[in-house]
Structures are given as C-alpha cells and as structure tokens.
Amino acid sequence: xxxxxxxxxxxxxxxxxxxxxxxxxxxxxxxxxxxxxxxxxxxxxxxxxxxxxxxxxxxxxxxxxxxxxxxxxxxxxxxxxxxxxxxxxxxxxxxxxxxxxxxxxxxxxxxxxxxxxxxxxxxxxxxxxxxxxxxxxxxxxxxxxxxxxxxxxxxxxxxxxxxxxxxxxxxxxxxxxxxxxx
Length: 182
Ligand code: IMP
Ligand code: MG
Description:
This protein is an alpha/beta fold. 25% of the residues lie in helices and 35% in strands. The protein has four helices and nine strands, in the order βαβαβββαββββα. Residues 44, 69, 99-108, 152-154, 158 line the site of inosinic acid.
C-alpha cells in the first residue's frame, strides 16, 4: 500500500542490511570495552537503532531523546527543543548518538553540545544517512551508513507528515504526494 507512493528506492533492504553490519563492526572495534550509552533520537532512529544494536555482542545501554526543531517563517530557525530528555546520567560515559539522517547538522550539533556540557566522556554520532550538501554547520558524523544527495527521503524511520516510517527501505516520494496534501 505505501509502496505505491514511492518514486524510487534509494537504499534497498539488502543494502541497509550490509550498511548496518559494517557499522556494527566499526562500533565493535571502537566501543566493545567501553559500556557506552546508545542514545537514539526519536522517532526516526527506531528501525536503524533496533537493527544496529542487534549486531553488537557486548555490554551497552540504550536511551532515547525526543528533539524537535523550531521552524520560524520559511526557514528552520536552527533552534531545537527537547520534548523528552534521556533519563540516564551521561557524566563520564561514552555516548553514541544514533540518528536517521544528518542534514543541516543543527539537530545533532545541539545534542552533541548538550551531552558534552553534561560531562559525557565522549560523544560520537552514528547516522544511517548523511546529506552533506544540506550542511549549514561544520559537522561530520563519525559513523556514516550512506551519503545521499539533497533529496527528501522517507522510510526506515524517516517520515513525511508522520507516515512511511515503517517502510523497510529508504526511497523518494512521488511528487503528487506532496502536491495532493498542499
Ligand atoms: P538537521 O537538523 O537539519 O540536520 O535535520 C535532521 C533531522 O531532520 C533528521 O533527524 C530528520 O528528522 C529530519 N530530516 C532531514 N532530512 C530528512 C528527509 O529527507 N526526510 C525525512 N526527514 C528528514
Ligand atoms: Mg530525526
């Protein structure tokens, strides 16, 4: 049913599987003996984080934050608001933020700064996708699943008006989907 709204698949289920396995190996090399906190940014992190942590056969903790960005006028103001904070203290802990996509970099940068301010021992970012062309801040995620062009994508956690998060792959929407809802 949802599939009929998709124009093009950008990252297939098989490719996601390979990406998650590779990131799992990289994270195992770097964190297997550090008992890190995997911090998911809701809601987009859910499928990615669930698959990723299943690749990791060593002690870790999971936690979640819900962040929303303010949009003033036609452009995002860059301010982010914490709708739900994590319940775990991060002081002296290694934190791996798990994000669906990094675009302007504003969301992730503000979370990184907050965790450092709270005394995290290290803060790393693992993102399924990176859109480097959208960047307004100088930020490079430490673990990147795939860099993609500056297109709007849905699926595997990413939404358009809260829909499509449950697709098992990432794709672009048919233009008529945007037009019919405007
Ligand atoms: P940033 O703060 O501009 O880096 O935006 C990152 C957030 O915007 C992500 O966590 C997503 O929730 C959302 N986002 C950015 N690009 C897309 C997209 O192509 N599809 C769906 N959501 C997106
Ligand atoms: Mg998000």
